[in-house]
Amino acid sequence: MVHTSLDVVDEKISAMGKALVDQRELYLGLLYPTEDYKVYGYVTNSKVKFVMVVDSSNPALRDNEIRSMFRKLHNSYTDVMCNPFYNPGDRIQSRAFDSMVTSMMIQVC
Amino acid sequence: MDAPEEPLPPVIYTMENKPIVTCAGDQNLFTSIYPTLSQQLPREPMEWRRSYGRAPKMIHLESNFVQFKEELLPKEGNKALLTFPFLHIYWTECCDTEVYKATVKDDLTKWQNVLKAHSSVDWLIVVVENDAKKKNKTNILPRTSIVDKIRNDFCNKQSDRCVVLTDPLKDSSRTQESWNTFLTKLRTLLLMSFTKNLGKFEDDMRTLREKRTEPGWSFCEYFMVQEELAFVFEMLQQFEDALVQYDELDALFSQYVVNFGAGDGANWLTFFCQPVKSWNGLILRKPIDMEKRELIQRQEATLLDLRSYLFARQCTLLLFLQRPWEVAQRALELLHSCVQELKLLEVSVPPGALDCWVFLSCLEVLQRIEGCCDRAQMDSNIAHTVGLWSYATEKLKALGYLCGLVSEKGPDSEDLNRTVDLLAGLGAERPETANTAQSPYKKLKEALSSVEAFEKHYLDLSHATIEMYTSIGRIRSAKFVGKDLAEFYMRKKSPQKAESYLQGALKNYLAEGWALPITHTRKQLAECQKHLGQIENYLQTSSLLAGDHHLTEEERTYFCQEILNFASQHTDSPGHKVVLPMHSFAHLRDLRFTPANAVVHVGGVLSVEITVCSQMPIPVRVEQITISVHFSVEKNSYRKTAEWLTKHKTSNGIINFPAETLPFPASQNSLPALELYEMFERSPSDNSLNTTGIICKNVHMLLRRQESGAALDSPSGVALEDGPHVLQCGDVTLAPGANTVTFRTQAKEPGTYTLRQLCASAGPVCFVLPHLYPLAQYDVYSQEPQLHVEPLADSLLAGIPQKVKFTVTTGHYTVKNGDSLQLSNVEAMPVLCHAENRAVIYSNAREKASEASLRVQSSDKVTSISLPAAPAYHVIEFELEVLSLPSAPATAGESSALGVTEAQRKHKDTPKAGHCMATTDHKVRRGWDCSACGGGLRSSCLF
């Protein structure tokens, strides 16, 4: 049911988004701590939201690591969006994106 | 100074602590000056420059003046800072050289020696000059004053260590001035002493910290040392700095725990790993929890004790700093991290103990914050506290489940035992809260005492949390809590209360397209509806779940079976039908007409083949699949001819239905596309471009409010249509995946048939697809017999026999053996007879059906062709040779007709259905309808 908590995250992003005057900082930081997970958020300039859920017992993940992971994710996402054959809103089926995400996961675990 | 003579009481760690300044010398003098001094000292701030690049601070100094005693001076190695005398002052009002030499000098020397022995360099000698006294003795002391003498004797290079205070108790400008100088001096010296001693202390502390890798190092000892520093900062009202000390300790400890988890254990840490025996929550009402501090000092504290103490101190300081919201935020972090740390350190914790601790702590923090903020402040900062509320709710829920308080039957003996154990771990209520009616301790105890009390407390908390979430616009969180609440209600067997929460959450998820939460909520909802006996809703939810790919095969099969069971059980109850939307059950992929152009003549057979993808996990036997058809007659009869229909319908007979986006009709998808237009505005005078831009023409469509009332999968929209025209197919078993179902129908009345609804029924359950889109239609036509006469060449040349193709379309008429076609000839163009003529009969779909020979009998006026037998809606084609005689006049206007054809039927009942027309370039005779075109022989004949 982590998904449900993500729901809350979205809300928080929108709440933060309003307050965020300086739009250059895309990383939203820790949004929603729970006992077992930490939820981090990132929002692009076009208000695309990335959410990452991390096991809170994993001490290797500090703010900076999360931030760089989000950057990577964002770059990869931008690449996907630039694909002229991709319809915005569709499920992302790019192999490059997939492998990037997988590599990120492996690196963390 | 209230009681300078009293022995120093044991250190009390309260806010009342002040830096200690000792006084020696004339005590009576000091006592007289003390009130003014203590009042004046803190009046003006002093800039404190700090080492290590820390920003200078303005501080108001206060001091605790005590009588000088040798015991007060710290022994070597004593690290206590709070009891450390920062400054030593010697007071004297001696103005007589003799007296000075006799007593004061000795006394001073003694004092100085003691100080030197303890290597204390922070001292000050104050000489109080009294005009009244001085006047009496002016003649006695002309040259050097006592002050000079003292300076000479004691302050060899530090003349600033001796200050004169003139007439301290008078109210004159001179007095004022001397006070000011004195106070400034005093403050400066105090600060110097602080800087020096604290700096030294900090250095020592750092050295101690650097030793932390050594085996004998103890965190508790270090904790005490650094806390001492924190106390001093707190004493100096430097809460920020004090907080930093605690934060450092906090971080250091956390790091150790993390390292321990990574396998790098410190010896002292194992001590914190002892099993948790008490879980009485945070105590934030006292500035310092001495009990816990002593435990730490004795190195007996558990992890929870240490964390509690540390947090209590941080909380106190944060509240001094007027940052209650940070307390709330830190509290949540602390609670989470404590739970994690206990897990990491593998500390054994009785089940539920942590839940108790967290619950108590949450409430304690909340009450503490409430205690120092007013209502309005609380309300505007809900966002900070709501996390704690929801955490407390969660924990209470967990406790309730653990102790068997959330069931119909109530707790059993095992549950009760557990409850007793948990309550025992709470210990006795603390005296600070004993008189508070709503203390966390009392709440928890009461909540665990009985099923009813638990329900009350849990509901209170839940509702409060939901309300708070809603008020700050975190609807999703509110829904999530609502789901928990629904689960609680389900356990309590009151599904009617649960339903609304589930529906609310589901609506929210559906609107945003969150697949997994939708599935989960639907599962709960299905159970709820089952209990409520809402058959229709239950079946609908079941069908959605059975087709849900996020569920396991077994679960889907279970829900599918539920529907089938219902269908088979209620076969005998007539009339009542449960209508469910089709999209959950199956998805119509494509539809194929045979014949491909979807045009069929009356009496012809049309088959419709649909491909349906069943979403069900198991094969489902459906008694009947029907497509209801809407029938309409078009007025224009021409459009119903085969020709027109064949010409205008070019489709290959397959209609593909787009893959439905269901079950996620995400709101964005249903929005119409942007209609953007360029806009140029030119100035009227010189036609130069003024503005340009893009206009969105359908803003009103895009920006209108989403109708919140439109339920996304309400069954209300589905109505079973009962038309007279229905395509049916009985007893079909739909396997999972693609299935092909074929409908056959014999066309009856001519007209256009539009396929409207697809309905699969099994017993009383109908799955209905209310609208087929894109539109699928087929046409039925009825055609009169027709004759086409067409020359093979572009134009007929006179004098040469040439071939002309005759095409007879039979239409609805069946040509029998012996039927003949009669053509009345024009003199100028007789039909030449040959012995052998063959006619080919084609079916309506231009497939060759048969071949037959023709008999042509030609007379002067009439050519009679006996047609071969052909069924209705077939085409007979044959070619005849004609010869146009050159002598024939070819004037436009009035001319002789080439031929008149007339089918003479042997049957009398067949009327002359029509006329035939054939023209070359001539005009038509006998008023026939004509479609003459220039050039060639183009005729269309109507019987």
Give a description of the structure.
The complex is a heterodimer of chains A (109) and B (943). Chain A is of the alpha+beta class and 109 residues long. Chain A has one domain: Beta-Lactamase, CATH 3.30.450. Chain A has helices spanning 2-19, 63-82, 95-108, and strands spanning 27-33, 37-43, 49-55. A three-stranded antiparallel β-sheet of chain A has the order 1-2-3. Mean pLDDT of chain A is 73; it is low at 17-23. Among the domains of chain B are: 20-207, 3-Layer(aba) Sandwich (Rossmann fold); 477-569, Serine Threonine Protein Phosphatase 5, Tetratricopeptide repeat (Alpha Horseshoe); 578-666 and 721-781, Immunoglobulin-like; 786-884, Immunoglobulin-like (Sandwich), CATH 2.60.40.740. In chain B, strands 21, 22, 23, 24, 25, 26, 27, 28, 29 and 30 form a ten-stranded antiparallel β-sheet that branches. In chain B, strands 8, 10, 12, 16, 18, 19 and 20 form a seven-stranded mixed β-sheet that branches. The longest helix of chain B has 38 residues, at 173-210. The chains are: A alpha+beta (109), B alpha+beta (943). At the A-B interface, α1 of A face α11, α18, α19 and α20 of B. Chain B: One of its GO terms (biological process) is early endosome to Golgi transport.
